[in-house]
Amino acid sequence: MKDVDAFIESLRQAPEGNIFNPWWQHDELHDDYSNSAEIRRHHLKFYLLERLEHCRYLLVGEALGYQGGHFSGIAMTSERMLLGHLSNKGIRPEHVFTRMAPARTSREEVRKDGFSEPTATIVWGHLLNAGIDPYTFTIWNALPWHPYHADKGMLSNRTPIDREFTAGLQCLERLLDLMQPEIIVAVGEKASLQLEKLQIDFHKVRHPANGGAGKFREQFSALIPAGR
Fold it and tell me: What CATH number does the domain containing 48 carry?
């Protein structure tokens, strides 16, 4: 537990600029509670704790998004998943963690049922439909924090710049040391470019966004057959 706590503490130091740190910052416009950052820290803590020593697969995306980890505290994981609003798609809260009751952190008037991230739904849905134990895979990002457009506000996403990816790479190295995955999968080109810098073995699949869902499923299924 101390190792996970130390890892989450290390996320406190985010790059300067238009970056939101969901575990250590309060989104004054959209957070519902004064302790929303603490709630997100607890979400991440139990997500990681319940996968320690069980992590076979690490999926690495590009960056945290406002519809996903900005409010859930977990990469490629949305509030609607945690709140049980995607159970009709086979994604239930207990697939994410079980040691605490999940909570939304966004205001209900901002998004009634909580935020939903299309990429998150596609990735989780495919892995679960393939019969992969959700506690054997961990999802992270090359940039763990949420980069947003200054003129559009926090409910926007942007591509990280090089110095931000450099900071994120240090976090990725610490996560690899913590989780010790057997197989690493880059989800998209940006993640692949960052993993190449670590000079480790990894696989690459298409990112589900922008019409890539079918190719993502096809490539992931070829890499990791159903039920494994």
Answer: 3.40.470.10
Q: What sign results for the dihedral spanned by CA atoms 53, 213, 115, 112?
A: negative
In a domain, 165, yes or no: yes
Does residue 70 lie in a domain region? yes
pTM over 0.90: yes
Report d(CA 108, CA 106) in Å as an integer: 6
pLDDT tens digits, one per residue of 181-201: 999 999 999 999 999 999 999
Counting the structural domains of the chain, the total is: 1
pLDDT digit string, tens, across residues 79-138? 999 999 999 999 999 999 999 999 999 999 999 999 999 999 999 999 999 999 999 999
Please tell me the predicted confidence (pLDDT) of residue 226: 63
Q: Is residue 228 part of a domain?
A: no
Residue 26: domain span: 2-223
Compute the C-alpha angle 92/30/90, nearest 5°: 10
